[in-house]
Specification:
37% of the residues lie in helices and 22% in strands. The chain is α/β, with parallel strands linked by helices. The structure holds guanosine-5'-diphosphate (GDP), magnesium ion and zinc ion.
Length: 350
């Protein structure tokens, strides 16, 4: 028989928990800011927070519990369980804290499969998919690409080829919440397995989870499909499906911020970083300064224009994620400067 206990608590964690005889084993099923809900091994669902000592011992933000974590708690103090420690994480998917550079937070832990959801209409972006794939491999879970809204796509073959080239060795599924039975998803959604849905806001994650649940439990975006989806998920929650699989809905990418992409960028574009070191000015913007090694390499073809463009695009997106307000302000100022310059020129020409 499948009970909530056997679903939520594999023998591995029951075994680990025996080292903490004073505490009770629980799993984090909901996180909203600093507040948690857990289900304990005896089946109770209750609020939880970390102990004072836990908070004191934290050295990086990702040390804090996340949805999916197995934790040892004290339940004697009243309604709120006190979390004393996190048991070994078999996988950990990180996100970057909104607005702060280089601070990774734990988004969800102990996930078997991560569905990277990407809609087949205007959400489609292979470069972003590549970054998600890297982050999922890094997390220790297995990625599956879930191409959503196939009903809105009329060049599926072409897009599939692009995805296949970017996601070598990764399962690729195509769905439409409107048309399909979701059978293809079910082979990953086995009793006791945990699957997280990640991807841009509006990609159709909550819609799919509702379909799997057979009820409208999660709010979904009500915007038209040619618009950008609205952020409707603000907390992370682990939901147990009727068949005993567990799914985690996550907020969209902008809310997530980008995980520490800058390190990945440095690694992926080491040649460009090395060139930039050779520029005469250390603050060179590579837009025509004398002695600019990047400009020189572009001119000779040593650095292909296309590679330079991808680098610019990725660093711009990363700057946006780090500090979107400031980024937009800088962009706006640049635009104003340009229009001022154009006006002056017009006047001069008259
Ligand atoms: N045409 C079409 N629209 C969909 C599909 N799946 C979701 N949508 C719509 O896309 C919007 C965003 O969906 P939602 O599930 O909230 O996306 P989330 O932000 O990823 O959770 C909603 O208006 C859904 O009705 C689909 O397969 N086909
Ligand atoms: Mg959603
Ligand atoms: Zn330069």
């Amino acid at each position: 028989m499948i009970t909530e206990k056997t679903i939520l608590f594999p023998p591995y964690y029951e075994a680990l928990s025996s080292e903490y005889p004073d505490f009770v084993l629980g799993r984090i099923v909901l996180q909203e800011k600093g507040l948690y809900n857990i289900i304990t091994v005896s089946g109770y669902r209750q609020p939880a927070e970390v102990s004072g000592k836990f908070r004191f011992d934290v050295s990086v933000p990702s040390d804090y519990p996340a949805v999916g974590d197995y934790v040892m708690v004290d339940i004697n103090g009243g309604d709120t369980a006190i979390i004393h420690s996190i048991l070994h994480r078999r996988s950990l998917f990180l996100r970057r804290a909104a607005g702060t550079a280089n601070t990774e937070q734990a988004a969800c832990a102990n996930i078997d499969t991560i569905f990277i959801c990407m809609a087949l209409n205007n959400d489609f972006n292979v470069r972003r998919l590549e970054r998600y794939l890297a982050a999922v491999w890094e997390s220790g879970s297995v990625p599956v690409v879930l191409l959503t809204k196939s009903d809105l796509c009329d060049d599926l073959e072409l897009k599939l080829v692009q995805v296949q080239n970017a996601a070598i060795g990764v399962d690729i599924l195509t769905t439409s919440a409107i048309k399909d039975e979701l059978d293809t998803l079910l082979s990953y959604l086995k009793p006791g397995k945990t699957v997280a849905f990640v991807g841009s806001s509006g990609a159709g994650k909550s819609t799919l989870i509702n379909r799997l649940l057979g009820e409208e439990r999660l709010k979904t975006g009500s915007l038209r499909n040619d618009d950008r989806g609205r952020h409707t998920t603000t907390h992370r929650e682990l939901i147990i499906l009727p068949n005993g699989a567990m799914v985690i809905d996550t907020p969209g990418m902008r809310e997530l911020g980008m995980w520490d992409a800058s390190e990945g960028i440095d690694a992926a574009f080491a040649d460009i970083e090395a060139l930039a070191e050779e520029c005469r000015f250390s603050n060179c913007t590579h837009s025509g300064e004398p002695g600019c090694a990047i400009c020189e390499a572009l001119k000779t073809g040593k650095l292909p224009q296309s590679r330079w463009q991808s680098y610019l695009k990725l660093t711009a997106e990363n700057a946006y994620a780090e500090d979107s307000e400031n980024y937009l302000a800088v962009k706006e100022k640049k635009f104003k400067d340009i229009s001022k310059y154009n006006k002056t020129r017009k006047r001069e020409r008259k």
